[in-house]
Each structure stands twice: as C-alpha cells, then as structure tokens.
Amino acid sequence: MVVAATVSPEPIVGKVQPLPRDAPGMERVTVGRFKSRLLTYRKQPAKSRNIGARVCGHLCGSRGGVRGGRKRATIIGGRTVLEALIFDVDGTLAETERDGHRPAFNQAFREAGLPFQWDEETYGRLLKVTGGKERIRRFLAERPDCSALTDADIARLHRRKTELYTAWVQSGAVRLRPGVRRLIREAKALGLKLAIATTTSPDNVDALLARAGLSDAFDVVGAGDVVPRKKPAPDIYAYVLDRLGVRPDEAIAFEDSENGLIAGVMAGLRVVVTPSHYTRGEHFDRAWALVTDLGEPDRPGFDVRTGEPVVVDVGWLKQKLTQGMQN
Ligand code: XBP
Ligand code: MG
C-alpha cells in the first residue's frame, strides 16, 4: 500500500494516512523509507506545495540528517514525528547519588576493610567519572597510598555496592523527581516509545522502576556495561535508538548532567536537562531545553533561561519542536 504524508497544521505526532495510488493531480515523490513504513510525499496542489522544500530543508539541515543513509525521518506534513522519549536515571528520574549510591559505596568499602570513605564533596568530584567501577578505579589511581585492587576485586566490591544500593531503593527511601511519573504515564498513554539510557547498573534500574511501579513502562532499557564506553560517549544512546528503531531526531532525551548532555547531543538527540543536586553548576549551553524540573500542574518547574514557569508534558515538547522547525 502506498501511503502519503498528509498536510496537517495540527499534531506533530501525526498519522500516516493512505492515499489512493492514482489520486488525480498528484505526482509521487518518495521522501523516505523507514522500516516497513513507506513514506511518500505526493505533490499536491496549492497550499501543500511548500512541503517538499521543508522536508528537504530538514533532512539536509545540521540537526538529525540521514545518518549513514540508512534511516530516514518519519515526516508528517513537513514535521518530524516525535516517536520516543529516552530517560537517564540517576539525577534525572530521582535524586539517587548523595544519599543512595554514595552511602552504598562507603558501606561496601567498610565491609571490605578499605581505609577510605567518600564524603559529599569528594563524591561530587568523582561523579565526573561515570560508572561505579570506573569511579573506584579512578579514585584508587589518585591514592597511591591505598593498596592496589585488581579488576576482580573492584568488580566484587561493586557487586556488593549494588546489593546495598538496591536494598536502599527497595526500602522506599527515594522518590521520583517532580513530573517524571506524570510525563512517563502521559507519553505511554499517547503511544510514544519509552527508553532508559544510563550508565548505572541494570539491577539499580530494575529496583527503581519496580519501586516506582513503572516496570512495564519502558520498551528498551540500556544500562551499565551493555556498551563499552559510558557517557559522555554517545554509545548508550546509539544502542537505545537502534533497539527502539527510531532516529535521533524522532526522540527527545532527558538528562541531569553535562556528561549525559554531551552523550545525548553527540548521538544527535535533542536533550532536556533538569539539573540535579550535584550538577547544578555544570554547563548546559547545548541543552535543547533547560528547566529546574519537569514540574507538576500545581507546582511548575522553571525555564532556567527565561524564568518562565513550565510543566513539561508531551504537548509542550511538541510545541517546542514546532517552534524549532519554524526558526
Ligand atoms: C550515574 C552513574 C552511575 C551511578 C552509580 O548514571 O554514573 O555510575 O553513579 O551506579 P546515570 P553504578 O546518570 O547515567 O544514570 O555504581 O551502578 O555504576
Ligand atoms: Mg544522570
């Protein structure tokens, strides 16, 4: 069946509607092909004439583009369709670092008889190193007075830390940040795909989602050592996008840190940043949106750049996408 991008001034999340193959006055111009979906623009009279140029302009523009010539954007009425939301975990879904991961590391160190503890300030500095095992290794490299640990020692230590951290999560000590549950539920109800892209260990993600009642919400979970290079490398986002089957310009990422922002931008994504306890002083110039938190209708977050109150929902994201394409 031949399908065509219809001209709709309304939703960004639009529908691909069938057109009769030989509709009069129409000429077929193939714009793109994505998976089993054939997206065809048929030149239409009068008002829709500018669509070809807008489509071409977008595909040839600096954002998105056709990476490797493999996938093409799903374009409805000259707009890229929003297909997926991708969430970071620590700091983005919940404030987990200072009172969750940090004490778990420290208890694991104590139990192993190691002669150091990470205070809040030290941990904030070490957070620049993503991944718990990598963080321990970096710390030990800075401390020649500490006896060297083998990779196997570090892995064992980290397994214990994960047990302690997941127990903390299961105890109910951590809550989702404002607007997180609301946005996830809304996006799910509207049929968007949802994914996790995190450096944290898969057990930590499972524990947090289970405790939050969101275990079934995500189509793809990319976590921990599933890719060799952790953030700020874009690998985890590339992994998740591939499994979702969506292009970077069809998805929006949510991050709390500069490392996460760099990873998302390098993967070609638009990134909404909600800075967290440890990341408030970092640089977020390249964020697509920078808000204090996602906000709730009765307690909005704030756009850090304009000071405007904001409730980040799917409608807000789609509106912002539309504005971006008009600029
Ligand atoms: C944050 C991280 C993780 C956690 C600790 O990941 O860098 O390393 O601090 O978790 P993100 P592990 O913000 O990408 O969710 O000890 O399991 O690595
Ligand atoms: Mg984070």
What is this structure, in a nutshell?
With 327 residues, the protein is α/β, with parallel strands linked by helices.
Number of helical regions = 10
CATH class of the largest domain: Alpha Beta
Largest sheet: 6 strands, parallel
How many domains make up the coordinates? 3
CATH topology of the largest domain: Rossmann fold
Uncertain parts:
1-70
Description:
There is one protein chain. With 327 residues, the chain is an alpha/beta fold. The chain has three domains: 3-80, no CATH class; 84-95 and 176-326, HAD superfamily/HAD-like (Rossmann fold); 97-170, Putative phosphatase, domain 2 (DNA polymerase, domain 1). It has ten helices and 14 strands. Helix 7 (202-211) links the parallel strand 8 (193-198) and strand 9 (220-223). The two termini are 35 Å apart. Residues 1-70 have low confidence and may be disordered. The protein binds xylulose-1,5-bisphosphate and magnesium ion (MG). Xylulose-1,5-bisphosphate is lined by residues 88-91, 97, 101, 130-132, 162, 198-201, 204, 231, 257, 260.
What topology does this entry show?
Blueprint: E1 3-4, E2 17-18, E3 27-34, E4 37-43, H1 51-60, E5 75-76, E6 79-80, E7 84-87, H2 97-111, H3 120-126, H4 132-141, H5 151-170, H6 180-189, E8 193-198, H7 202-211, E9 220-223, H8 235-244, E10 251-255, H9 258-266, E11 270-273, E12 289-290, E13 301-302, E14 309-310, H10 314-326
Parallel strand pairs: 7-8, 7-10, 8-9, 10-11, 11-12
Antiparallel strand pairs: 1-2, 3-4, 5-6, 13-14
